Amino acid sequence: MKLLVLLALLGTVSAHQLHEGTPEQEVPAEQGEEEPGEPEPPCPTESESFRMTVPGSGGHTYRYVFVNNCQTFWRARKLCARCYRGRLASIHNYSTNQRLRCTARARTNRGQVWIGGVTSRWFWRVSSRWIDHSPWNYSNWARGNPRCFWKTCVALCTASGQWRSVRCRARLPFICEY
Ligand SMILES: *[C@@H]1O[C@H](CO)[C@@H](O)[C@H](O)[C@H]1NC(C)=O
Ligand SMILES: *[C@@H]1O[C@H](CO)[C@@H](O)[C@H](O)[C@H]1NC(C)=O
After folding, report:
1. How far is the CA of 137 from the centre of ligand 2 (A)?
2. N or C: which end of the chain has fewer CB within 10 A?
């Protein structure tokens, strides 16, 4: 009888750990992700940010900042908003992907950078979206991606231009669009 109780408890604990402890699970819902008590990071300095302007169709101009300062995904997003009145970049075609990859490769030093996508799972269904709400109409996943137990964020590999699912708490350089 005691043994059964013990087994039941162990079962509960490991189920609990499985639920709470995996990397993707550390990420709370959407906006959150504040480390309590940690001050807001200062805006990137000029030396760690590189601005690029791309003329688009119909006279529209796209502006990007490549920030070589490693932040978690949600902090990067906040910095894009606070420091550039922008957002993490979304990518809608191959040519933009290439352009951003090349500049990110030259201007950042981690091999991967955050772009503005997140992947989440609802039971067996894994889906990705841009946090700026633009349509998810292009993707360039590396083989075996997206990977997602609960929620992951999208990183662009600066060597291949392919995208990988990364734990949102990882700290990476990032690309803002404004
Ligand atoms: C790719 O996307 C950018 C920005 O969304 C746009 O300005 C450009 O015209 C597109 N290029 C092609 C070849 O569709
Ligand atoms: C994808 O979405 C972007 C952003 O709204 C849009 O500019 C682009 O034309 C779309 N591309 C295709 C192929 O539908």
Report:
1. 6
2. N
